[in-house]
Amino acid sequence: MQLPPKQTPTESSTNSSFCASTLARICRFPFHLITKITQKLLGPVKRISRRSQNRSPTCAFKIIWISALLVGEIFIFYYAMRKCSWPYNPHWDTSLADPFRIALIADPQIIDSYSYGRTGILQRVSEIYPDMYMRKNWINLQNIFDPDAIIFLGDLMDGGREWDDDKWEDELFRYRHLFLPKKPTRTPIYYLVGNHDIGFGDNVILRAYERFRKVFGKTNYNVVLGNHSIVVVDTVTLSGSNESLKEEGINLIKRLENDSSNNLPRILMTHIPLYRPPNTDCGPLRQNGHYINQGAGYQYQNLVTESLSNFILNSINPILIFSGDDHDYCEIRHERESKVIEISVNSFSFAMGVKRPGFLLLSLYNPTNSSTSLDDIKNNQSTFAYTQCLLPNQIRIYLWYGVLVITTLSCIFSHTFVKIRRSTEMLPVWLRYQQKKRWILFNSQFWKTAGKDIVSIASVALVTYLICWIWFLVG
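^ that's the sequence the OP posted. Answer follows.
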């Protein structure tokens, strides 16, 4: 008997049996063990997540405020100074002599009740904050640059000409405390008189003029610094018609004109900028506008008259001119044979209408007393170098603080809102319904919780702020 042929398994039957066996293995896999292991591993992560959601951002904002105040009150002022350095001419041979270094400060014009007519707390705030701004920069200037001499270009006080003697003494005490010299015996300080100190022209107030001279010295003088003749001319009184007030200045100018024995390079210092043609461009470093044009008003005049300017320039023949009064930087060249540069220096105060106050660093190098220095100047081997130094934008710092205040309040209120909202979800249904009928912002618990966090942050910020101020007040 013949047996039937043996059948070989088809491809489809093989695949179906393989799938069945695989499914059986999967069903036997211990998924319940994997689930338990996963729950144990993720348990701590979930607990940490819940804790972080319930944790108040108070600690983080304390750190943020401490950092922000240290930067805004100390480090940004230090950084602004460090960005500046003493100017230097590569042609100078410092093996013969070191440059003589002078810091020029214009128009500190400390705010008083005359400035804005304010009273009470608003007036005190108007005085304190510009004072602290200048105090910080004054201390950093002395500590970082250690100048050989300092020259104030006038307008020391805003209402100096307006006050009686008692009030002026009070403002003088404030000014001296503000600009307390670090090395009074080693670093001489020289002063120019400004129209805010004594008035201007024919309206100069004699009482104010005499007390300024009594405290700060003559308003017209000549001093040798770094083998240069620094000529200080009182253009405030020279702009008037009072011959007795003008006599000192005219005598100085004529004496220098006729002095052939002193061939030191001359640098002119004047509070009021000298005359220039209308719309003379002040250069790219000016912040507001492009030029200083002639103008006049109560106790001020923008420029010295053309005739007086020519008289001063022709008689003194300076190699460089510095002025103040305008509050903004301006650099021009007077159209003369030697193309003399005049620089109006920024105000030192942020309350004088410029975003970035500043000062100027001047390096003088003239190792000999011979007349060759004048020849060197004509050959473009200058005996001086200068640079403008800008100070921080104080208004921008205050705006940053404002943004941080809004951010802090928003985060604290949002966190408190979410926290109370979650706490109501844990209540019984009937009580939860009653709570939902009341808006959370009208809940006393909301304001108590948020207020506690805000007071905690504000206390730390206030202490940090006071420490920053004390640092400079006693510095």
